[in-house]
Specification:
The chain starts with a strand and ends with a helix. The longest helix is centred in the last third of the chain and has 15 residues, at 364-378. The strands form three sheets. Strands 10, 11, 12, 13, 14, 15, 16, 17 and 18 form a nine-stranded antiparallel beta sheet that branches. It is globular, with a radius of gyration of 21 Å. The chain is α+β, with helices and mostly antiparallel strands and 379 residues long. 33% of the residues lie in helices and 27% in strands. It has helices at residues 10-19, 51-60, 73-80, 89-95, 98-107, 121-131, 158-164, 221-234, 268-271, 276-284, 310-314, 346-359, 364-378; strands at residues 2-6, 25-29, 42-44, 63-66, 84-85, 115-118, 135-139, 149-152, 170-174, 180-188, 194-196, 199-205, 208-215, 239-248, 251-258, 298-304, 319-323, 333-340. The protein folds into three domains: 2-85, Rossmann fold (3-Layer(aba) Sandwich); 114-174, Dna Ligase, domain 1, CATH 3.30.1490; 180-378, ATP-grasp fold, B domain (D-amino Acid Aminotransferase, Chain A, domain 1).
Length: 379
């Protein structure tokens, strides 16, 4: 099977790695000459708007997908008329625009923060009076890893927040007081078959995901499944979909969705029967979905900015490094580590996660949060 991918970053790379065992070939359309996915297939190094390049991809591929939601929507719509493409341009149009996304949540009775659209400074002032403070101003498009956002804590912050996001169309939403940040990853095939992965509990710093922990047998698993299934069926979605959630009491609120494989699901490579990357490929190609269950707890530590010593990682039992082949740079995701619980107990697992966080350059605050959580669970 020949798979075309819009984008050539680490998500495309991991899709290609997982597809090799399925006998798949890959072609990447990516303007980055140093695209880290390039060694795993053919690389068309051209702008996304290059019509000759997109024609070449459509002519070669049997099915096309994309690795991030900021790929040009008109390109996806055009390719969809020429070749099998999943997820659809309709799903992408909703997921890439925060106003459309939040509005769809509301239409499907999926709880979310209070929000209002804003297109000017005065409109923002009026909206803040309605949603209340503190609030978060977010650009409607082009936002990821905390980019395109500004926190408004008091009235005096409004003008600076508007300037910070560039004065472009936005939404402003109320702050959700949550106890946990969670995400659920689901996959839906062409035939309508659906499978769900265990919830992930996520920890961010500076707007970037630093750690994900799989949550086996979590009491909120089925509530999360019901929410994401509404989206899958409403959009007649094909592929992997991720839904980021806030836990407030025993209720889940949707933050945003991602129409692609997701950072918080990287632990599935070693931690689930079938990884999110393989299942995405299975779904878009019309193959039966793989099992999504996990037999042991798993963790994923992001490597942001720099790579630790690989030998030091491998000294930790059941830890596996994944380096993306990208140059080190502050704030850049250059790899991740997965850790599987070897059955020695929750305290040993938490200690190993803390060790990996230290190797990744994270401060001790996150490790302390985990230690406190583990102590509360065993007390």
């Amino acid at each position: 099977m020949r798979i075309g991918i819009l984008g050539g970053g680490q998500l495309a790379q991991m899709m290609a790695q997982s597809g090799a065992g399925l006998g798949m070939e890959f072609m990447f359309l990516c303007p980055d000459a140093l695209a880290c996915a390039a060694p795993y297939g053919q690389h068309i190094c051209a702008p996304f708007q290059d019509e000759k390049a997109s024609w070449q991809l459509a002519r070669w591929a049997e099915v096309v997908t994309y690795e991030f939601e900021n790929v040009p929507l008109d390109l996806v719509s055009s390719l969809e008329k020429q070749v099998e493409l999943h997820p659809s341009s309709g799903a992408l149009s909703v997921a890439r625009d925060r106003l459309l996304e939040k509005s769809r949540f509301r239409e499907l009775d999926i709880p979310t923060a209070e929000f209002m659209p804003v297109e000017g400074l005065e409109e923002l002032r009026q909206a803040v009076e309605i949603v209340g403070l503190p609030a978060i101003l977010k650009t409607r498009t082009q936002g990821y890893d905390g980019k395109g956002q500004a926190v408004i804590r008091k009235i005096e912050d409004i003008a600076a927040a508007w300037a910070q996001v560039g004065g472009v169309p936005c939404i402003v939403e109320s702050v959700v007081r949550f106890s946990r940040e969670l995400s659920i990853i689901a996959v839906r095939g062409r035939s309508g078959e659906v499978a769900f992965y265990p919830l992930s509990e996520n920890y961010h710093r500076e707007g970037i995901l630093r750690l994900s922990l799989s949550c086996l047998n979590d009491p909120l698993q089925f509530q999360a499944q019901r929410l994401i299934q509404r989206l899958l069926e409403d959009m007649q979605y094909v592929g992997v979909l991720a839904l980021e959630l806030f836990q407030v009491g025993e209720k889940l609120y949707a933050n945003e969705m991602a129409p692609r494989v997701h950072n918080s699901g990287h632990w599935t490579i070693e931690g689930a029967a079938t990884s999110q990357f393989e299942n995405h490929l299975r779904a878009i190609c019309g193959m039966p979905l793989g099992e999504t269950g996990a037999s042991a707890a798993a963790a994923m530590v992001n490597l942001v900015g720099r790579l630790p010593d690989e030998a030091a990682i491998r000294e930790i039992p059941n830890a596996t490094p994944h380096f993306y082949g990208k140059g080190e740079r502050p704030g850049r995701k250059v790899g991740h580590i997965t850790l599987i619980d070897g059955g020695e107990g929750a305290r040993v697992f938490a200690h190993r996660v803390a060790h990996l966080l230290k190797l990744a350059g994270e401060d001790e605050g996150l490790a302390q949060v985990l230690n406190d959580k583990q102590s509360a669970q065993t007390s």
